[in-house]
Design a protein that fits this description.
By secondary structure, this protein is α/β, with parallel strands linked by helices. The protein is built from eleven helices and ten strands. The structure holds ligand A1D88. Belongs to the enoyl-CoA hydratase/isomerase family.
Length: 270
């Protein structure tokens, strides 16, 4: 597919999706939404991809929805867009939402936050599995200052990442949060000097791609997203079942053999 508002590249087992409207601080558009989803699902299905990086071109990650589009928004269009068809993903209903496809991506998704991350841009960063940020980045939920509410499941995602009190603060005030504060409250996993962000993010991604079992990553990711819906007993029973599958898999045999033979593993994801 020819993308209009993103760049897509796969190199050496790492797919990179770059929001690409740098002159508009990568402000979100419906075309960008279509492009990102297509690229995410293509990466998920591509056996040559083990890790996905989502980032922005230029000085911002994403400034949220493009205000020019919001200006003329027709509530009927929103109503139509919210009436989503069911996804064909064999996933639990809780993830049958507009951005619920993210947890179904079978590879780790790292948000490489190169600059301002606002509104729906922050929502997307939260749906990623890990967040690495430049230490001069600014974050804002923005919604309440635009007269909007906590959109697209951010009221569910944000407290699970930063805790209830921090989520309440960030959503009610919609204030600008520095990257230092974002790191302190757990919104981002790692802070980097801006000139080191790319190097550190890709070093982490490369480590996952080269040395971690793809099948183990896919299952661990699913386990963590399922757990809020499970009791301890259900999570344990599920883990026991997955453990039996893992123990019978070739990645397990390779993981043990490579350790014993003091050599890098050659995982196949099976
Ligand atoms: C359905 C709705 C979903 C949503 O996402 S609602 C939320 C929409 N987004 C926002 O409300 C965020 C608005 N923007 C900001 O708060 C700030 O900006 C940032 C934190 C993203 C970055 O701050 P800084 O680095 O200081 O840049 P700057 O001087 O505020 O902006 C630079 C230029 O970019 C334009 N701009 C910023 N955000 C948007 C946007 N979302 N849509 C369109 N234009 C935007 C500005 O107006 C300005 O332009 P000029 O240089 O001509 O004055």
């Amino acid at each position: 597919m020819a993308y209009e508002h993103i760049l897509y590249e796969v190199s050496d087992k790492i797919a990179t999706i770059t929001l690409n409207r740098p002159d508009r601080m990568n402000a979100w558009t419906p075309i960008m939404e279509r492009d990102v989803r297509h690229a995410m699902e293509a990466s998920s299905a591509d056996d040559d991809v083990r890790v996905i990086v989502l980032t922005g071109a230029g000085r911002a990650f994403c400034a949220g929805a493009d205000m020019d589009a919001l200006k003329g928004l027709d509530p009927d269009d929103v109503r139509r867009a919210s009436n989503l068809p069911p996804f064909d993903m064999n996933r639990r209903p809780d993830w049958q939402t507009r951005y619920g496809y993210y947890p179904s991506i079978r590879k780790p998704v790292i948000a490489m936050l190169n600059g301002a991350t606002a509104g729906i841009g922050l929502v997307h960063a939260l749906y990623c599995d890990l967040r690495f940020a430049a230490d001069n980045t600014v974050f804002t939920t923005a919604f309440a200052r635009r007269g909007l509410i906590a959109e697209h499941g951010i009221s569910w995602m944000l407290p699970r990442i930063v805790g209830h009190a921090n989520a309440m603060d960030l959503l009610l005030s919609a204030r600008r949060v520095s990257s230092e504060e974002a790191f302190r409250i757990g919104l981002v996993n790692r802070l980097c000097l801006p000139e080191k962000l790319r190097e550190e993010t890709y070093a982490y991604a490369r480590d996952l791609a080269d040395f971690v079992s793809p099948s183990a990553m896919a299952v661990i990711k699913r386990q963590l997203y399922e757990v809020p819906f499970q009791t301890l007993a259900e999570a344990t029973i599920e883990a026991n079942r997955e453990m039996m599958v893992a123990l019978a898999g070739s990645d397990f045999r390779e993981g043990v053999a490579s350790f014993m033979e003091k050599r890098p593993p050659r995982f196949t994801g099976r």
